[in-house]
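Hey, I'm writing a tutorial for new members on how sequence and structure tokens pair up, and I'd like a real worked example in the thread rather than a made-up one. If someone can provide the structure for the chain below, I'll link this post from the tutorial.
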Amino acid sequence: MVDKTNQPIPGVSVFIKSTTTGTVTDINGEFNFITEESLPLALTVSFLGYKTQEIDVYEVNETIRITLSEDINYLDEVVVVGYGTQKRKELTGAISTVSKATLSVPVTSFDNLLGGAVAGLNITQGGQPGSTFSTRIRGGNSINAGNEPLFVVDGVILYGSGATGAGLSQVTANLDPLSAINPSDIESIEVLKDVSATAIYGSRGSNGVIIITTKSGRRGSDNIQYQYTVGWQEATQKLDLLTAGEWAALNKEINPNGHFKDYTDAQIAALGKGYDWQNAALRTGVNHNHNISFNGGDEKTRYFISANYTNQEGILQNTDFKRYTGRLNFDRDILSNLSIGLTLNASKLEQNGLNNYPTYANGLSNPFESIIRTSPANPIYNDDGSFNYRNRYELGDLIKGDVTTNALSDLLNTTAQNISNTLLGNFSLRYAIIPELVFKVDAGTNIINATQNYYAPSYTAGGFQANGYASVGNRRTDIWQYEYTLNYTKQLNKDHYIDVLAGYTTQTTLAEYTTASATDFANEQLLWHSLQSGAARQAPTSGGSEAILNSVIGRINYSLKGRYNLTATLRADGSSRFAANNKWGYFPSLGVSWNVSEESFLKDNKSINDLKLRASIGTVGNQEIGDYRYAALYGTTSNYSFGEQLVVGYIRTNPENPNLKWEKTISYNIGADIGLFNNRLNLAADAYYKLTTDLLLDTPVEISTGFGSVLRNVGSVSNKGVELEARGLIVNTRDLNWTLSANIAKNINRVEDLGPGIDNIGNTIFVGQPLGVHYLIEYAGIIQKGEDLTKIVGPSWKPVVEYGDEKFVNQNDDNVVNETSDRVILGTSNPDITYGFSTTLSYKSFSLFASFQGVAGNKIYNSLRQSLEEPNTAYNVSAALKDRWTESNPSTTIPKIRSYSTTYRTSRYLEDGSFLRLKNITLSYTLPVVIQAVPSAQFRVFASGQNLLTLTKFKGYDPETDGGAVTALNPIATRIAYPLSRTVSLGINLSY
């Protein structure tokens, strides 16, 4: 007897139908009995929480393998909430659960599981292995303060997916601290969305809460499980660039007296395809993932022990990610009313990532962009196989005599390394004063030691002018969390149930960092290990901060007759990030729900099995502005001669604002949960409205203050939307099971106010518009022959227009198009709709799972495409320029070649960021018993794919990663992001 994960189930009742003859399964899920009943006969199999089955037996001594299916009574599910658990039928808040099928997908990082899994949850993942990702629950609330949700792992509070970097600007990627969690260790993920669910976290829950619970042992059985996965990943697509011959022809057209002035057409054509720099940088990355776990327990003890090793090669050469983790989850009943628990996760993360170029490196951002742009006529290697360091087409700072840099060499020989050692743990003690009153103490910690190492040799762009550049950064973050709670639960009589929680929590965050760097190395063999060897040493930096959050929490859950439920919550938070008179914020909420299906008029309805209506209102806060922003801060500037002595001078770096206070969000939610057709179809629908006021916002101040802006509480932002989730059991037979689930959400974001007299901040934040709009010159096509040139207003960079030039809309009807007066709002980086759907189909020993993710309505400014469609004589460009306008080819998409360039942002490069992606697909097969002596052993093989197919109109590498760097203050994507990869994996799973 096993469940759908092939784990044995002890205690299952097995009886001959309509008799009292039978037995129960043992610790291995096995059963047998002797009967005098004649064959064939029917067995009735039943167990709490699973569907009762009837199994026919035809032969004596027949071995029967029975897989029990969970009884999916949606409202009877138990879900994890803040500081406890509740039955879904008692909930008053909007809480979504990531399905077990989704959590079983073999991935390197669990953020790969979340995209499209929950309505209202929008995940934007990065392409680089181990890098941070962006998460939004019901839109963004804030402009300057954080918008990431709160992550709670086994009771330990983590804020967002914040970076663990040590502050070196040359290292582009930061390790995601959540990547320290092995996805195979996760038991459940709950997403808390409305204020009734999140208010217990007060200031920490303003952007939603994601609760991650890891696995624990099972009483009465011991289990060993090993899983190995090997995968291959490659770029989802490559950019179409010009070949050497095409680029040379374009070069000669732009500048007839340039590099190819003496080349005939035949000689240019003979250059052929040339050298494919893009292909040389990309590779098929191989990934290895090993997981082993031991779990079990007896009547007093439960344990779960696991270890994981992951080695993931990036699709760009010299980029990779390694993870080593070990986990111990332990529970022990010391006395009948006293128990202890421990969750402990230790990890080491190593990431070799893409590195930043210094600002002088010809305006290119990193080696990969330089690789994309390098002329295909320029060889990558010399004849002897060494790198070619002579590029006669490139001009600029990175040339000494006839020697320059090689972009592929930059990628391979520059070190940009992140290393993080993390300890995440929680110790709990639970003491039942009386059976109804439980006192609990939790002591948690999250300790992160992060190191960044960077070295750019003298022959790479990062160290070319500096004759070698090395830097080292270290950051230590210690987070200590203590929680003391009293929980009183009581069924007062058959009609009244009460659950009261009260507690005090405190969290202290200590951070310290140091950085040091040097240049001009005579010996480059030691890399960053000998900064003192650099002839020029930059002044080291160091710093630190301390943040303290003290909180008092209270919650009352009350249920009347199992029909009418109420949740009232109050949390008071005192934060060190505000001055003494504004430290404390008070965050109440009230939620109610009505189980309509328990009423007499629906009790016997055969179609509507469950119906619950919900409503909530409350306030949460936001303090994520960094430390000491309310105070006057001073920093060093330079040395001064003072009284014949050299002294260090200090200047004020932050203006004080003792009136700084909490940013607050008031939230309203109404919802319904419905179970139909014997609970084969379950629906959840929600509508919400959130208004964030007292924004923690950097606003302009008078120039006489010496500052450009000051952090104040001004302005407001609203979010409103609807969400729908559905899951259905389509087929449920002995051999065949088929389930479907889907979700869709629409969110409308709007800036309501920015303070007195302020209509906009920069070029991205406007009153009456969503956060992060695109404010651009409107592109109107290409001037074709026959149009009246005298009636077309030219741009400021080319006032006199010609046939084949771009056209732009002159918004104010003056005689020139420019960025000062002719830009308009043309969309936002925020999606209108996010959606996802998944299906699980199992037939006997086969199982197929597939999930899809999609977004619609968002716009991405493709700055990489802009740079690739700006023709020049130094760098390669897009193959789209082959269709450039000429008199014989009056193109309507690409203007004619010009010898000038502009950095003006126009809607020509504003693209639809909508996409539909096949996120995950996994096919598995469980082999019959392979070890006769150990019949409980299970062997499963599987094949899996991630990001195999993406449907989109976006012309860059990927609409998710290329748009992932945008923020409310900067909706323009980075020039080039790390490409997203598609992965195919094979694996085995052995359990006993």
